[in-house]
Amino acid sequence: MAQAEYPTIAAIASPLGVGAISLIRISGSKALEFANICSGGIASSTMPRLARRCKIRDNTGAVIDDGLLTVFLGPNSFTGEDTVEFAGHGGILVTREVLARFLECGAIHASPGEFSQRSFINGKLDLTQAEGIMDLISAQTRLAIRAAHSQLEGTLGKQTTAARDELLEILAHLEAWIDFPDEDIDPQTTVQLRSRIEGILATIASLLSTADQGRILREGVRTVIFGEPNVGKSSLLNRLLGFERAIVSDIAGTTRDTIEEIINLHDIPLRLVDTAGVRESSDEIESQGIQRTARQIEDADLLLEIADASKPRPERAVYPSNHATHLLVLNKSDLGEDPSWKDNDAIRLSCKSGDGFDELSEKIREALHFTEADFGEHAVAINARHKASLSLAATNLHAALDLLTEKECDPELAAIDLREALDALGEIPGKVDTEDLLGVIFSQFCIGK
Description:
The chain has helices at residues 31-39, 42-45, 92-104, 114-121, 127-138, 142-152, 155-179, 190-208, 211-219, 233-241, 284-298, 357-368, 372-375, 384-405, 411-427, 435-442; strands at residues 9-12, 19-27, 52-57, 63-72, 83-90, 108-109, 221-227, 259-265, 268-274, 302-308, 325-331, 347-348. It is an alpha/beta fold.
């Protein structure tokens, strides 16, 4: 679609709040025209990609702000359109006034992610690269940054596009054989077709194997701290965070709801969840908190069961079946250890003195097996959308394989499954008509990006 068919948009591209510098971005066919009105014609006379001092004025000629203006001419810009950026003073009011002036000149306020969406529409990015932008902005560890950069460089898009191109060749050959039976077209043997399809399935399986890594990089390892009342669950949370997030009290049942915070431990994002103490309770509110604890345990990736080392070992707490990694932590080791814990393989520490936390940190890293070496060379980590599309493609490819295995196979039915797989793979980089999908993806971006 032609660039001029889109309205010119403007938005604040820097974070909200007071700072040294703010950035306002305009993009569209009339970006230079609107910037000229505000700057007295400076935009048109500025060399592309060269920052130039500029005063933004209101309609009476009064100066709103004094800063630097940079012009990026399409298609050599982030959006592929003519783009103007103004870097001014970072006050909340002055930044809004500059934006309001651009809007007054005719620009419309950009919706969340609209600049990135235009970049996709104009062929500057594929969908995986656009999602990589958001991953980079929200990255909380070096591994997450590495994965986001890999996606921004198009690693995932290239792999899925290559698989789709291979599938397109298979489908084109198969359909030509079906549609033109009288022509001299080599149908290829079913063995050859199956081998090529199995190669695509191997690529899909490799990408699907990164789904858990991708979820952890983006959301963190869901780490649930649980145990009986007064064993130090909230104290452990506070120690790991480095500040007093949860209320600590000797009164049993103080924690009645779950508390969540994220920390970076050995470059592993941990989403810590402090829970209510597990015990029999007649208090309705506390009982609801204990029920929530059970639900959190069911969804956990890592379980930290906390017990009081100074007291006799209780009967093992009953908690829902879960395949998550489970570590037993004996707190209050500074008070001495009850003989019943002797020879128990547990991590011993003291939330009061801080002893034992280095060991806990190491044990968590060892238990999760999530280091840079474990992450792999290619640094691809798919998200939930990619996983759904890849799983659908795999299902259809397996269905096609089953049809091609039958003695009396119908190539037309196999072709239908291959087309479905082709569409599913195309959705990942955005190679098919996915208008509704675009709306969902880009609505998650911040305004100005």
